[in-house]
Amino acid sequence: MSNNLPTPDKMDKQKLRAEISPRVSNSSAQRLSRDLTCSICLDLFKQPVSLPCDHTFCKACITSYWGGPRGKVHCGSGSCPQCRKVFPGQSYRPNRIVANIVESYCQGIKESGDQLTGLSADTVPPTPLCNRHREELKLFCEEDQELVCLVCGISQDHRAHTLVCLQDAQKRYRASLTTSANALQKELNSALECEKETEEEVKKLKDHTADLKQRIEAQFSELHQFLYQEEKLLQVKLKTEERRELIRLDEHKALLSVEISRLRRAMNDIEDKLSENDPHRLLRSIKGLPQSRQPLKFEKPALKPPRLCEGRFAGPLQYRVWKSLKGSIYPVPSAITFNSKTANPWLSLTSSLTCVRYQTFNSAVQDNPQRFNAALSLLGSQGFTKGRHYWEVEVYSSTVWTVGAARESVTRKGVINTMPANGFWTLSLSYGVQYMAGTSPPTLLSLEEPLARIGVYLDYKRGLVSFYNAESMTHLYTFKDTFTETLYPYFNLGFLDKVHENEPLKVFLPKI
User: Fold this and answer.
1) Measuring CA to CA, which residue among 312, 43, 2 is closest to residue 154?
2) Would 236 be classed as within a structural domain?
3) CATH number at residue 40
4) 67, 94, 121 — which closes off a domain?
5) In CATH, what number is assigned to the domain containing residue 421?
6) Which domain holds residue 66?
7) Residue 36: is it exposed, middle or buried by C-beta count within 10 angstroms (0-12/13-18/19+)?
8) Cα distance between residue 135 and residue 127, in whole Å
9) Domain count, the chain
10) How far apart are CA 290 and CA 293, in angstroms?
11) Domain B30.2/SPRY, which positions (predicted)?
């Protein structure tokens, strides 16, 4: 017999599949699904077995049933869960026919699904059915988050789960999704707004950078122009000096040319006489030749050697130019003095009003609205309402100080909090430990070296107050604000504490 011939089992399966496939596509599939369902697990048969009473169950289901309290009748006996018939021994036989029918049924369902997948877009899709029981999907399982049919709902897989009808589940999840969509839209709007703000910040940064670049170029252009003009002026002076010396040398050369011509004529006369061979003629003409008795002498004209004054054109050239540069520097360091009318009574000023220190006794000075009465503070005499200004303050080895700028209307009585909201833009040192900018809260500064002299720069129009290490011109901090009234230099020597007795502050005027 040929090995290619189909076996009886294969023939049975093909025959069953051919018979069942047409039925899978019509409404009788639902009834067939119920016939192929195990009455214990309420699912399609898996490894179906038949009992002596001819009832069929899943092999795992009947084994589990007999192992439970309901399936035990007598020791070694078994009962049918469906007809309750008791028979000796827990025996069963595999039901290959039912297994083949279940396999063909599942294959038919698969083929039907493939046909549905190939439908055109215009075809109205049929109501989806349960893949296991071919029942309409009418329930939604909350735990597994899937659609199930009524048979699945009473099966062991979903018996303990929360099941909701399709319409209620749809309403609930539509409402939930709508709420989520609204919340996400708000978050998206916030993100888009943040993106817009970031783009605006990028534009501001680029505009600010372009403005700073233009200002840097303008200021260096002024320096370049000044240096170029200084260079050209010095070159013109050098050229003029060269021409004057060349004219004098040309005059000397003209005198030399006259003298050379005179000597050459005399030389020619002598050569003419020497060429005469007749002695009578030579001796007759010798009388009219003066150089025969005494040779002519070269009368050298006086020459003053040309001399370019190197001191005018070289020397400490760069230093000289730097000294002359101060006329084009802006802002020129301001000559700041202290305003004695604003000084706390515990402060002592020098006669020049350029140095202030703490004193151990209270000066008998008259109080006035301008004077600080609690803080060891005072203002400068010079006020600024426009332009750019720069001044320097020597802090020596003082361990507590505050310097900067303040509005004219600042509070001067009682305890003072020096921050921009109160009209102060300051830099300070706290007990020799921490440098900080007077923001709210204070901005701590990490410096590589202690400060001995502080530079304060004020640009009234642009609302800037910047601080520098005046010895290295290293930038320390910059405040950005809007100014609407007169600003004065501000100084503070700390608190009423004798530890500051010999540590003054002094305004410093750099010599350019």
Assistant:
1) 43
2) no
3) 3.30.40.10
4) 94
5) 2.60.120.920
6) 30-94
7) buried
8) 10
9) 2
10) 6
11) 316-512
The answer as to whether 354 is a domain residue is yes
CA dist 433 and 494 (Å) reads 14
C-alpha distances in Å from residue 161, one per residue of 155, 243, 497, 500 = 10, 113, 79, 81
Structure-block tokens of residue 93: 């036989």
Residue among 507, 498, 508, 509 nearest 376 (CA)? 498
Full DSSP string of 358-409: E-SS-------TTS-SSSSEEEBS--BSSSEEEEEEE-TT-SSEEEEEEETT
Angle between helices 317-325 and 166-274 (to 10 degrees): 130
Does the reported pTM lie above 0.70?
A: no
Q: Please, which pLDDT band fits residue 127 given cuts at 50, 70 and 90?
A: confident
Q: Which pLDDT belongs to residue 75? A: 60
Examine residue 176 and state whether it is found in any structural domain, yes or no: no
pLDDT tens sequence across 163-209:
888 888 888 888 888 999 999 999 999 999 999 999 999 999 999 99
CA distance 34 to 44: 8
pLDDT in the model for residue 8:
44
- The CA–CA distances, whole Å, from 332 to 56, 225, 389 equal 109, 18, 7
Rounded Cα–Cα distance for residues 47 and 40 (Å):
14
